[in-house]
Write a structure and sequence with these properties.
The protein has 113 residues and is α+β, with helices and mostly antiparallel strands. The protein has a single domain, classed as 2-Layer Sandwich (hypothetical protein PF0899 fold), CATH 3.30.2320.50. Helix content is 27%, strand content 34%. The chain has two helices and six strands. The strands form two sheets. It has a three-stranded mixed sheet, covered by helices on one side. Helix 1 crosses helix 2. The radius of gyration is 18 Å and the shape is elongated. Bound molecules: zinc ion. Zinc ion binds next to loops.
Length: 113
């Protein structure tokens, strides 16, 4: 499943960071997921719960912030409002995705010895 490979990659990053800081464990994990990233938040949570047993994240809560999809004009005419279609009202250019496709490991709270 897509969400499992995302969480797996996330854990690799977390362990790498925790090691670099000589952390004993992780207290909290914060991630930002774009609504357009094709990620099912509930599945991501389930994958996280499945993976964290026996890892540095065993006791870590996860915060998931959903980022709305936003489109804008590539020529600086600003953000497009939802329902206006996917081209700029001013110049007709096809819209560019500003945000909403990201999968970001935003913050880690580490427990340092
Ligand atoms: Zn424009």
């Amino acid at each position: 499943m897509h969400e499992y490979s995302i969480v797996q990659a996330m854990f690799d990053r977390i362990e790498e960071t925790a090691r670099a800081h000589h952390a004993r464990g992780v207290r909290r994990v914060s991630v930002r997921i774009g609504r357009g990233a094709g990620v099912e938040i509930a599945l991501l949570r389930t994958a996280y719960e499945t993976f964290r047993a026996g890892t540095l994240c065993e006791a870590a809560a996860i915060d998931i912030e959903e980022v709305p999809v936003r489109w804008g004009c590539p020529h600086g005419h600003g953000e497009l409002r939802i329902g206006m279609g996917l081209s700029c009202a001013e110049c007709g250019s096809p819209a560019r995705l500003i945000s909403g496709d990201e999968i970001i490991l935003d913050r880690l709270e580490l427990e340092v010895a």
